[in-house]
UniProtKB/TrEMBL annotation:
<keyword id="KW-0863">Zinc-finger</keyword>
<protein>
    <recommendedName>
        <fullName>Endonuclease 8-like 2</fullName>
        <ecNumber>4.2.99.18</ecNumber>
    </recommendedName>
</protein>
<keyword id="KW-0326">Glycosidase</keyword>
<dbReference type="GO" id="GO:0140078">
    <property type="term" value="F:class I DNA-(apurinic or apyrimidinic site) endonuclease activity"/>
</dbReference>
<keyword id="KW-0378">Hydrolase</keyword>
<dbReference type="GO" id="GO:0019104">
    <property type="term" value="F:DNA N-glycosylase activity"/>
</dbReference>
<keyword id="KW-0862">Zinc</keyword>
<dbReference type="InterPro" id="IPR012319">
    <property type="entry name" value="FPG_cat"/>
</dbReference>
<dbReference type="GO" id="GO:0005634">
    <property type="term" value="C:nucleus"/>
</dbReference>
<comment type="function">
    <text>Involved in base excision repair of DNA damaged by oxidation or by mutagenic agents. Has DNA glycosylase activity towards 5-hydroxyuracil and other oxidized derivatives of cytosine with a preference for mismatched double-stranded DNA (DNA bubbles). Has low or no DNA glycosylase activity towards thymine glycol, 2-hydroxyadenine, hypoxanthine and 8-oxoguanine. Has AP (apurinic/apyrimidinic) lyase activity and introduces nicks in the DNA strand. Cleaves the DNA backbone by beta-delta elimination to generate a single-strand break at the site of the removed base with both 3'- and 5'-phosphates.</text>
</comment>
<comment type="subunit">
    <text>Binds EP300.</text>
</comment>
<dbReference type="Pfam" id="PF06831">
    <property type="entry name" value="H2TH"/>
</dbReference>
<keyword id="KW-0234">DNA repair</keyword>
<keyword id="KW-0511">Multifunctional enzyme</keyword>
<dbReference type="InterPro" id="IPR010979">
    <property type="entry name" value="Ribosomal_uS13-like_H2TH"/>
</dbReference>
<feature type="domain" description="Formamidopyrimidine-DNA glycosylase catalytic">
    <location>
        <begin position="2"/>
        <end position="189"/>
    </location>
</feature>
<keyword id="KW-0007">Acetylation</keyword>
Length: 334
């Protein structure tokens, strides 16, 4: 699924539409609730980790650049991440079956994953036209994306040999004449954007101390890195790449690693994610060092394994046993 840098880029694509009114709602979704977006104004756009949040409010509300025009729900009812998640309700935007959690993994990872996320009932969106902002949370599948003022075109034939363009799940046409197109995503109504900048690896407010404390837990380092409570936006690609760059075995116990190693891992997490975002904004691709590779850059054979917490997601890891030896002995802290 798109990781933090991709979702941040999606957010930047939506930002110019903030302040504009939705003139038409299209897409493959048959949810009536989304049709209610028509005539509403896009009030705000935020990215947090792997989630994009768009706020909609009544078009009649004044909208001013740089100010909060309405008593947004964040101020009215501060909501912690967990509460927001529980309050989120799913509007599954598809003819189903195509975009469960499994579809958010790389094809190679499919076989080891199971659907974990359950959906709750669709909320009454009638009050979406009231004076309070309503937030939509977008969670993207493996091929999830957003396009601004263009549609995605097929770049290869599908399994049946057809050159079929991807079907948009949601199309929002604005009064300016521009439009946003959303592909392969799940959409939830929620009461607040549930933004946690302290744990967002791309946020200037990312809290290194909190992240370091998480990494020092006596658990496999590759589990901690994917824990969105501490490393929001960090996904499997970033995990594999930064563990290689920091020369740390994915199953190393955080509590057994030297502080300098953990500091180095944090530096790589932030730097790699930032560089990736800049590459995306410049239209450049990413060259993997270890992810999906058979040999590391030094020519060593790469190992592959499926690791995860006993009761959590299992994800594929790639590592070089020579560049990333497993540490069994407690190394001195400095
Ligand atoms: Zn190597």
């Amino acid at each position: 699924m798109p990781e933090g840098p991709s979702v941040k880029r999606f957010q930047l694509l939506t930002a110019p539409f903030v302040g504009q009114v939705v003139a038409k709602v299209g897409g493959s979704s048959r949810q009536r609730n989304l049709k209610d977006l028509k005539a509403m104004r896009l009030q705000d756009s935020q990215a947090s980790g792997k989630n994009l949040f768009l706020a909609f409010g009544a078009a009649l509300e004044a909208w001013t650049m740089g100010g909060s025009p309405s008593p947004g729900p964040v101020e009215e009812e501060p909501t912690i991440q967990g509460e927001a998640d529980r309050g989120a309700c799913s509007l599954t935007l598809s003819q189903e079956g195509q975009e469960d959690e499994v579809s958010q993994l790389s094809p190679k990872e499919h076989s080891v994953q199971r659907k974990q996320e359950t959906e709750c009932s669709v909320p009454d969106a009638a009050d979406a036209a009231g004076g309070i902002w309503k937030w939509l949370r977008f969670h993207f599948g493996l091929f999830g994306s957003i396009r601004a003022n263009e549609f995605s075109r097929a770049n290869k034939a599908n399994k049946r040999g057809d050159w079929k363009d991807p079907v948009p799940r949601l199309v929002l046409n604005f009064d300016s004449g521009g439009f946003l197109v959303f592909y392969n995503c799940r959409i939830h109504w929620c009461t607040s954007p549930a933004v946690e900048p302290a744990s967002d690896i791309l946020s200037p407010k990312f809290h290194r101390g909190q992240a370091l404390a998480a990494l020092r837990q006596p658990t496999s380092i590759c589990y901690t890195l994917l824990d969105q409570r501490y490393f929001s936006g960090l996904g499997n690609i970033i995990k594999n790449e930064i563990l290689y760059l920091a020369r740390i075995h994915p199953l190393s116990q955080g509590s057994l690693l030297a502080l300098s190693d953990l500091e180095s891992l944090l530096d790589h997490a932030v730097q790699f994610s930032t560089d990736w975002l800049h590459k995306k904004l410049a239209g450049k691709g990413l060259h993997y060092q270890i992810y999906l590779k058979e040999k590391c850059p030094l020519g060593h054979e790469v190992m592959q394994g499926t690791f995860g917490p006993r009761d959590g997601f299992k994800r594929l890891s790639w590592w070089c046993p020579q560049c990333q030896p497993l540490q069994f002995v407690h190394r001195c802290w400095n």
